[in-house]
Amino acid sequence: MLGLIIVVLLYVTALLVLMNALRRIKSTKTQPSEEWVTVLIPVRNEEFCIQRTVQSILTNKYHNIEVLVIDDHSTDRTAEIVSSIDDDRVCLLKLEGSKTGKKAAITMGVDAAARGDIVICTDGDTVVGERWVENHVTNLLEEKVLAFGSVKYFDRGGFWTNLLNTELTALVGVGAATSVLGKASMINGCNYSFRKKAFKKVAGFEGNEHVASGDDEFLLRKITKFYPDGVAFLGEEGGRVETEPPASVRQFYYQRKRWASKWKHHRDLLSWVMPLFVFAIYALFVGLAFYLFFDHKTEVIGCIAVKLLADWMFLKKSSTLTGVRLSVFTVFCLQIIYPFYVVFFGIASNFGKFRWRSRSYPI
Description:
Layout: H1 2-22, E1 37-43, H2 50-58, E2 65-71, H3 78-83, E3 90-94, H4 102-113, E4 118-121, E5 126-128, H5 132-139, E6 146-148, E7 151-153, H6 159-180, E8 192-195, H7 196-201, H8 215-226, E9 231-233, E10 241-243, H9 249-260, H10 269-293, H11 297-322, H12 328-348, E11 353-356, E12 359-362
Parallel strand pairs: 1-2, 1-4, 2-3, 6-9, 7-10
Antiparallel strand pairs: 4-8, 5-10, 6-8, 11-12
């Protein structure tokens, strides 16, 4: 029984540290700037969403922008739709030959075309607010070279979307808190920005081009190494974005497998320790709870209740960043599912393959 208590205490202590860090996040007052900004949108087969994404960027209050849509060999009408947008701030680029993937698209945008030193990246199925660009620029004016903001899924209603948004809120909270602690651990590829000079200094994605996913986190690790105090989190509501949720259980499975499979490709100690710590905590929690339940029902239920309370407090604080409205029922269901979910994907992410953007990738 002592083992389970220690596991829960370690977990709660970690959450308390993260919650204390979240309290230190403050909104940055927007500052006037005339810097030129380049928005990069790497796309592949986004015909149903790309026009909405581009239009949301063009409605921003910040006017010194260009929008580069880099098409990764789409087989649908994506390129045609982008070409039809009547705005000289929008430019369509195409990856040629054997160059494929999101990292190649971003590198092409930065190296070949980006006019501004500030580069903001988002995805072709994302919608941004009218002060999104302004918030990124403001956070990069204060000796920062990389900034990232929160993300949530479009609220389609129903239990599935609520469950996904609750989990995503936790991930955003961890990323924001660790950035405050000076050890930024995770960001989302649909809402981050960087100085082009910093991208060049760390040699972009050199060294991890072979990994299909992870443009955001690999760049984050490299920049953190060269600029220890150079990362900012966008605490402002205007820095949020909304994106499409996985459309099916199969898409969700491949997405989470892709996310989880990146850990072993990182080279810094923190990126190895954190996922292994989380996996170990949940594996021990599940194993010990099952093993001890019949002989120590009251104590096991008490440990579960303490964990539930700590998770609720952390999610409540993190939800102020994402704007997600928490449901007690959804959080309770996630408490039951999540330990098994972590253990499953912790194992599954080391084997087989995943599909992303109509392509299959081995792990």
